[in-house]
Design a protein that fits this description.
globular; alpha/beta; 2 domains; D-Maltodextrin-Binding Protein, domain 2; three-stranded antiparallel sheet; single chain
């Protein structure tokens, strides 16, 4: 009896200690605004995912702060990533989303302009994994992978280091394609689409399937574009007959390098906080993110907007990046050379 009374007494004393971190987080966030940096201009896929998440995640964070998006385009997302890592307050009131490939580009030796260590960000989660594609305008004469291998083409891209530039460069270099990649479409995907319509370029690569469906479905439905290849580790169920980059005939060494490059697709819509945010706030942000991914209202809006939701937790993102950064040196070297060789 004495033991049970003592245990009960100790449990009463311990309760505030367990509640304290949650209370402290709620007290911190109550009445505050959490800024969501977007490394691209308004209107693109990353922007749409961020704005949709921001409308629902706040109610799952203790204290129910308001989430507000801020677009910070520049250098293919590097500007926003540098800003999040080096400038913002490390208190959990700023998170950001940026191009999925930026987290691994420093590993591959393409660190020009980067001022961050991707493994030190506090990763909140990714709304989806992803399949990207290469698509060509219907008048380009390129309808299949065999066409792409034999017919000269011009690909539009936003900036060096962006997926829209990296993927076509890798394809060209590994498979000896007669392809030219033109950067400078600063408005992102919308500008590249205009370039295709005007005949300035023949197509684009690294185009997220989810972005195509949510923003440019009319191009698909009207058969104004032809999808030639999928860029991911696994095929999308919507595209059973479109070849996958991992299935193309190549050497085992090239396949390992392709796997490293395509691994970014597993964290397609990532959100992160800067390093140094108190652990209990990161835990709360991760829990809120996970809860938002199951929120019926969020899921309903995502479905209405044709946004794919295939969530990856912050812990899983962190683990994947550690595995990527532990890749064998010879594989990293080959992947780097495939990306870097830019005529």
């Amino acid at each position: 009896m004495k033991l049970s009374v003592a245990a009960a007494f100790l449990s009463v004393l311990a309760a505030p200690a367990f509640a304290a971190p949650a209370d402290a987080v709620a007290n911190f966030y109550r009445g505050k605004t959490v800024q969501v940096l977007v490394g691209f201009a308004p209107g693109g896929g990353y922007d749409l995912y961020a704005r949709t998440l921001a409308r629902y995640m706040g109610k799952h964070i203790p204290g129910n702060p308001t989430l507000v998006t801020q677009n910070m385009p520049g250098a293919g997302g590097i500007k926003a990533m540098n800003y999040l890592y080096n400038v913002v307050r490390k208190d959990g009131t700023t998170i950001g989303t940026f191009a999925r490939g930026l987290a691994i580009e420093p590993l591959l030796g393409h660190a020009q302009g980067t001022q961050f260590d991707a493994t030190k960000f506090s990763w909140i989660g990714s709304v989806s994994n992803e399949v990207s594609i290469c698509a060509f305008w219907h008048t380009s004469g390129i309808k299949t992978w065999e066409d792409l291998k034999t017919k000269p083409s011009v690909i539009g891209a936003s900036a060096a280091g962006a997926d829209s530039e990296i993927f076509p460069v890798v394809l060209r270099n590994m498979f000896k394609l007669p392809m030219k990649v033109v950067t400078g479409f600063s408005g992102g995907g919308a500008d590249i689409n205009l370039g295709m319509e005007r005949g300035e370029v023949n197509g684009r690569c690294g185009w997220s399937w989810s972005s195509l469906l949510s923003q440019s479905r009319q191009l698909l439905d009207s058969k104004r574009i032809n999808i030639v290849i999928q860029l991911a580790l696994e095929k999308h169920e919507d595209l059973p007959d479109v070849p996958l980059i991992m299935d193309l005939p190549t050497t085992p060494q090239n396949k390992a390098a392709l796997r490293l490059i395509a691994s970014r697709q597993s964290i397609a819509r990532p959100f992160a906080a800067p390093p140094g945010v108190p652990a209990e706030r990161i835990a709360a942000l991760r829990a809120a993110f996970d809860a938002t991914m199951k929120d019926p209202l969020f899921l309903a809006e995502a479905k209405r907007l044709d946004l794919e939701v295939r969530p990856v937790s912050g812990v899983e993102v962190e683990k994947l990046l550690k595995e990527i950064y532990a890749s064998p040196a010879d594989v990293v070297k080959l992947a780097s050379e495939a990306e870097r060789s830019r005529p």
